[in-house]
Amino acid sequence: MPSPRQAQAFSSSTSSESSSVPPLDDPLTARAAGQDSPFGDQSPRASLHPVLQVSQDSVPVTQEFPSLPSTKTRTSLKHKYSDLFTAAATETASSDNAGPARRPTNDDALDLGSPGVLLNRKRSVLAPASPDASPIRQRTGKGKAALLGGFQAADDSKPDNPSYLRPPSFAESQFATIIRRQRKRRIVSPTNNQQYAAVSSILDLEASTPTDTPPSNQLPYAARADDANATELGWTNALRRGELKATLDCHHDVPTTTLVSDRQDPLMATHRAWEFAGWGSISLLELPASPLNSDNPRTAQPPRLQFGQWKASALAGNAVTGSVFYALPAVVAVSSVLSPISILIACLLLYPFRPIICELASALSASNAGNYSYLVNISTKLVAVLAAAITLLDAVATGAVSAGTASAYIAGETLTSHAHIDGRLISVLLLVGLAALCLTGLRDSSSVALGMFLLHVLTMVILIIAGVVAWIRSGNSLLHDNWSIGMASLRAPSTGKGIVRAIFDGVCVAFVGLTGFECSPSYINQVKLGEFPKALRNLHIIVVLTEAPLMLLVLALVPMDAILGGSNVLALLGQVAGRGAWLKLFVVVDACLVLCGGIITGIVAFCGLVDTLCDDRVVPRALQRRLPKTGATYPSIALFLALTLIMSATCSFSLTTLSSVFSVSFLCVMTLFGISLVLLKYARPSLPRSPTTNLGMVLLGIGIGITAMAGNFALSPVIIFQTLVYFVAMAAVLVALARRVDLARIFVWLVEQQRSSWLGRLPVKLEKQLIGWIRNERKHPVIYFAKTDDISVLANALYYIQQNEPTSQCKLVHCYKSIDTIPEQLDETFQLVDEIFPTVTVDLVFVEAPFTPQVVHAITHRLGIPISRSFISCPSGRGALVGSQHALSDYGGLRIILP
Length: 899
Known about the structure:
Elements: H1 4-15, H2 27-32, H3 71-80, H4 90-96, H5 106-109, H6 144-148, E1 151-152, E2 164-165, H7 175-181, H8 183-186, H9 220-225, H10 234-241, E3 282-284, H11 309-322, H12 324-335, H13 339-348, H14 353-363, H15 371-376, H16 381-413, H17 423-439, H18 446-474, H19 477-491, H20 499-510, H21 532-557, H22 560-565, H23 569-577, H24 581-615, H25 634-650, H26 655-683, H27 695-715, H28 717-738, H29 740-753, H30 762-777, E4 782-785, H31 791-804, E5 809-816, H32 826-836, E6 841-848, H33 853-863, E7 870-873, E8 895-898
Parallel strand pairs: 3-6, 4-5, 4-7, 5-6, 7-8
Antiparallel strand pairs: 1-2
């Protein structure tokens, strides 16, 4: 293999050619002139490409390629396209023929025995048959050019053979050479001014040659033409021969430097030149031959736990049905005897949110992080992070309110005894104890959740039946007294607010009794197909049939003074209805159990979202550390405990204040569901989902949420400030972590401003450390599964990655069943995209396998990239990547970044 100096020598000779006549040994220029190398694939220079070497640890796979087109077919193609060149380019063609390399004839291009033979009809490139032909290669119309119809060739000699031309591609134009030669003017590493040990691409040989290299006496044309991967279709020939293999152990983290700075301080050589990520490469990834690569739809979805409608109802049902314990006192405080009407209206107003959540869940059923997962597939990552802050706030409020309400019931039982326990201490002990219980790995037990849910429903049924019997026995006298007291307070001139306003305020507060519905999408990927809407229906029916009747029984059997004076109103109802302490004790035990289940629900929602944020590299992956035996993520559980205690302490353990904060955060999350669905309908209209919700119903749900939030703010303006403080604090931390690389860039700029200060060389050292930290943070690659060679699609995908992901590496993975199906200009488009985004190394990886869930998981495992950092376009409509054979949920969390 020639030495690097020899490679520099022949490349320097290449750059010394006249600009008017481009060097014909240049691979892209040779492709533009239609000159395939006469030397074929026999050169030893093919080993210069670092990623074109066969990986030693690759699993050998026998590759079978389709047979070549026959000579007869290619001869017909030659006659078909022989008239696609105009006579107006005679001078250009003549000047190109003056080069030392021989222009191959049509017979050479169609010779099936040549090593550089074209692979298929789509990639046929025919040289002009006469010296009058144009050097710009023309192909049949494709894509937008085909839709426009092209232009008719002006050839008077053959009026009966009109041909349609298309604009030259990137590789066919001279811009390829011009852009590539600009590389050596900007590939400058200010922190490590050394040339990398290997060239990242065969197309960078000229760009990697120092400008002061003396000319060599070697023949550059033969050396360049001998390179099998520098010819017209060298990479496809290498793909056919099995020479294009991915070397997964090569990490190109060291910056490439090809030009020494003229300045004394290399850090000031080029503004942020240290962000240059290097040029990409083309490789073939071989997957292990295993059943995972099968295209059998029966094995498309890996086995996982599947919940039915009742277990799915129980997981969120403990939080939904348990909210009745802290909702009734809060509603009575604002709407008095009109509370049953307010609660019933609030329960009915929950209906528009059911189809909203169901449509979102059906469209993105593999996403189990609620609004964050929905918005990250629809909008930008910053918007999704803000939604995650609200969801985390709601989960923390769930734990704080559940612990406060359970402590109120326990403290109420010890109020008359000598062993009275402070409710604040009970709340802290409950939070700490349940966090420790979750560390044992019991938080995900659906059977335990179902048992607690059935026990609570049974308790409520017994309480309602006993209350109705007691009401029949006692009559309406107490209800009449409570009605008189309540209506008098509502109509009082000084404090009264009227019947309508009282009902409206009660409706706004009563939404706190519906909390828990927002947690249901956190386990959607574990629910059987078609069972999730039934689970939401079950929860809605239970809420409607229990909360409003229980409120009416409280007003009929418990005096108004006792209702307003305590938080354990259902325990008082049990004491009166059961004519003794047995039913009261049963209600207290049930309250403690179901409210503890609400705390666990908050922990599950919080930890699940934190895990998703860790997978997306929004927060540090240290929060995903697990205990060896139980697998519990102890950092996230500890963080939940700390935040819950902080919220409870800042609210002075006041159940009224906590309930108000909880109600507002719940309404924010429910409103975000409606906003997410509107964005989904607008940005991903072709995404398959069933059922679909009318836009009017979606807007109605958004209006209900906004109105209820406004009503809560009007009742207690201080809640605005308190909730805003919690949200801003959580959002600021998440945004700072998500944009930590951008913040580090700002710090680098600030340090650069102190370069001439009294600090000496401290700014230089600090800047080098910051740059090293930024490079370390950006070294984690992402995957984009590309199906088309459309430049707009790939450019938009790379733009999204550059704006939303702190990475400097992107793998464009293309899965194909046969070489004939590979897009015609994918290699040229890949080169252009790599040029457009110099801060991201774009690698083109071919995988000879169908795009199935097994193949996707095998690719991510082979490349060492999480599935959450693998992106696709919208899997339906134009440019669909997911066939009808596999649902999007089978792929396990692929992110949709383009329409």
